[in-house]
Amino acid sequence: MFTFFIQPLGLASLLLLSVLLLGACSEQQPSIKQLPLPAVEQHSTVPDFSIHPVVADKKKAFFDFLRPLVIYENTQILNDRYFVEYSQQQLTNKSTLTKKERARLDKIAKRYKVKKDFNSADYWRLLLLRVDVIPASLALSQAALESGWGGSRFAKEGNNLALLRFSEVI
């Protein structure tokens, strides 16, 4: 049955098919998947959400203001996660990381408070557990609760929503 399939192909077609199959099976150098960061309007202060007399309008304005910031931060976190996965794959395959890649990995591990140990499975497990996005709905609802929909003293005077200062976000 298999010879019936090969016979009509001819030698040139068979050669082309084998080259394609070999190319598909060969190991490729892993690449770092990176997402483009979304454009975010820069703000130096939190808007005054109290100008909206209707509560539904106030909530909409609050979420519309914060949503792009949450998406921006989650994109950065996702890019860090992709880099950690790439680094793990490189070191698992006995490849090396460049000095710049090692420095970036060290910076990520330090930010997430993971003690550096490239040879430990626990290191990679813990790092990947911590370097993960926060669901936008969770971040937005937490910010709403902690800042009183942007009306708290911390939000107004300190540009602080959900324990995050705006001067540190962007």
Automatic annotation (TrEMBL):
Pfam families: Glucosaminidase (PF01832). GO terms for molecular function: amidase activity. Residues 134-161 form the Mannosyl-glycoprotein endo-beta-N-acetylglucosamidase-like domain. PANTHER family: PROTEIN BAX. This is Mannosyl-glycoprotein endo-beta-N-acetylglucosamidase-like domain-containing protein. It comes from Marinagarivorans cellulosilyticus.
